[in-house]
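Supplementary Methods. Inverse-folding protocol.

Structures were first reduced to a discrete structure-token string of length 265. This string, shown here, constituted the complete conditioning input.
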């Protein structure tokens, strides 16, 4: 009985990139930016297109002290890809954020190339109009214990454990979580880091559960007014990936790092 990554080669459930601008793109420009993908969305591998809500909520008015339902401010597009009934990829173009999430991760290079294919030209146009605010990368990783919950000792997976967590919980007792965050300075820019560990029980059937450890790693690079283009975004994204890998690999023990093929920097 041992801890096992959710996939044979890695533990990644999903990966997301969010690029945020300092000011909103005009609706006509956003429509122009998304037109190449909208016109050939199937050629890009997507199955559907949806309207995306603005990053700015609509103003809600009231008449005679009665609330009036606000019309959804739909500016932008969401492109989605499915495998059966499961969504496996989504690319979103909103007025102040571009976002990409993948639920089927193979390799960083594949993810990076797909992001560049979908957002490279669009970012170049957008950053000619507005300034970049932040570039964010998020990873969700998951491991499960292939034995009884009460024998699921998280210390056999984790490189270190928050000392404030009771030993009984760590060794298969009640569920627990440990969330931490801090800022780092990179080339005079601030970067927010979150590293969250959630130990939970998943229901398998009416009588059985299994213990899982979920990792959430966030790195959010604050650009602070520097001029930027799409190449800068890709360069920062590579840095964020490397830093995420360092944080995650430092959180699990050497045996698991070797098993899923990552090294602690």
């Amino acid at each position: 009985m041992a801890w096992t990554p959710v996939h044979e080669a890695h533990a990644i459930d999903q990966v997301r990139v969010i690029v945020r601008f300092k000011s909103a793109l005009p609706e006509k420009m956003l429509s122009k930016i998304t037109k190449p993908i909208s016109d050939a969305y199937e050629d890009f591998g997507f199955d559907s297109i949806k309207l995306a809500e603005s990053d700015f909520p609509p103003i809600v008015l009231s008449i005679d002290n009665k609330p009036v339902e606000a019309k959804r401010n739909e500016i932008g597009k969401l492109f989605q890809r499915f495998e059966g009934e499961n969504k496996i990829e989504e690319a979103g173009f909103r007025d102040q954020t571009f976002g990409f999430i993948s639920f089927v991760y193979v390799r960083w290079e594949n993810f990076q190339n797909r992001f560049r294919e979908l957002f490279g030209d669009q970012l170049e146009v957008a950053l000619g109009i507005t300034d970049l605010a932040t570039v964010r990368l998020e990873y969700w990783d998951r491991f499960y214990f292939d034995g009884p919950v009460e024998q699921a000792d998280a210390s056999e997976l984790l490189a270190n454990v928050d000392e404030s967590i009771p030993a009984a919980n760590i060794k298969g007792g009640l569920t627990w979580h440990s969330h931490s965050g801090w800022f780092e300075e990179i080339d005079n820019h601030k970067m927010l880091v979150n590293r969250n560990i959630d130990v939970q029980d998943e229901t398998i059937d009416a009588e059985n559960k299994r213990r899982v450890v979920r990792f959430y790693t966030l790195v959010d690079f604050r650009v602070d007014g520097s001029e930027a283009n799409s190449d800068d975004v890709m360069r920062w994204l590579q840095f964020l990936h490397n830093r995420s890998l360092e944080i995650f690999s430092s959180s699990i023990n050497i045996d698991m790092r070797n098993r899923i093929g990552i090294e602690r920097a």
